[in-house]
Amino acid sequence: MSKVKSILVSQPKPESERSPYFDLADKHNLKIDFRPFIHVEGIGAQEFRKTRINILNHGAVIFTSRNAVDHYFRIAEEMRVNIPSSMKYFCLSESTAFYLQKYVVFRKRKIFHGKTTFKDLLDVMKKHKDENFIFPCSDILKADYPQLLEENGFKYSKATLYRTVCSDLSDLAEIKYDMLVFFSPSGIKSLFQNFPKFEQNGTKIAAFGSTTTKAVEHHGLNLNVQAPTPETPSMTMAIERFIKVANKKK
User: Fold this and answer.
1) Is residue 106's pLDDT more than 80?
2) Greater confidence, 109 or 130?
3) 47 and 30 in one domain?
4) Is residue 232 domain-resident?
5) What is the mean pLDDT of residues 162-170?
6) Which 3 state secondary structure label does DSSP give 73?
7) How many C-beta neighbours within 10 Å does residue 213 have?
8) What interhelical angle do 20-28 and 235-246 show, nearest 10?
9) Which of 97, 8, 25 lies closest to 61 in space, CA to CA?
10) Residue 140 falls within a domain, yes or no?
11) ∠227-233-234 over CA atoms, to 5°?
């Protein structure tokens, strides 16, 4: 097994200096770079009008990410829609709820949040079953979200406000890494869109989540590191476990 000395993580560089990736790099003398393989592009007001979704016909909003928050308020501004103070906000997590402070006065708004899962959020929303919800999202949405809303009898409008697109990675063409780390099928798609003739050779592949794992296998790549698992719930833990074996002195 060849040693791993350089790793490319297909996500933005962590803002916090306390990121476990930095600890991993220091502990094992690794070169870890970060580069988003995908990015988000907003859908314009003209295109959104074609959906005939009226923001003000909804008394509540469902937010599952910060991107959803940003693009909801962006499209409202572009369309010159004033969001009423009576609007209720239902957020997937507490961190997403706190992020709303960027746009609204937190203490003066009706803001609710779940724990970590969409099912947790649905339990909170059930107390407001009569509301008409608007669900800002990307063109890539987990299929079980709409399914759960419909199964539980919620009235809602799915508002696609942004798209996930492949980033230009042409500047990486001549740069080689011992390991590539992916977190979504879109990241794998971006790899092959940028480098159609990509061959794995000795490059190690790490994948987070079952759908990412399936995308790796679909493209005929060998998966070397998988997370989460009971033993390694985080990607950094999974990588560390792998390199302890791969980098072990012979």
Assistant:
1) no
2) 130
3) no
4) yes
5) 95
6) helix
7) 18
8) 10
9) 97
10) yes
11) 70
Say if residues 100 and 106 touch (Cβ distance below 8 Å).
yes
Mean pLDDT of the chain: 94
Structure tokens of 173? Answer: 């063409």
- Distance between CA 144 and CA 150 in Å, rounded? 10
Say if residue 103 is in the same domain as residue 192. Answer: no
Report the interhelical angle of 210-218 vs 185-194 (nearest 10°). Answer: 30
Phi, psi for 133 (deg, rounded to 5): -95, 145
Same domain, 57 and 105: yes
**What is the span of the domain harbouring residue 151?**
41-164
CATH number at residue 122: 3.40.50.10090
Last residue of a domain, one of 164, 198, 222: 164
Boundary (domain end) residue, out of 164, 182, 208: 164
Q: In sequence order, which residues have a C-beta less than 8 Å from that of residue 14 and are 6 or more positions away?
A: 21, 22, 34
Pair 113, 96 in one domain: yes
Sort strands 179-182 and 204-208 into parallel, antiparallel or unpaired.
parallel
Q: Specify the number of domains making up the chain.
A: 2
Which pair of structure tokens corresponds to residue 221?
A: 């790549």
- Name every residue whose Cβ is closer than 8 Å to that of residue 129 and which is 6 or more positions away in sequence: 153, 154
- pLDDT at res. 69: 97
Of residues 57, 210, 65, the one with CA closest to residue 141: 65
Q: State the Cα–Cα distance between residues 182 and 213, nearest whole angstrom.
A: 9
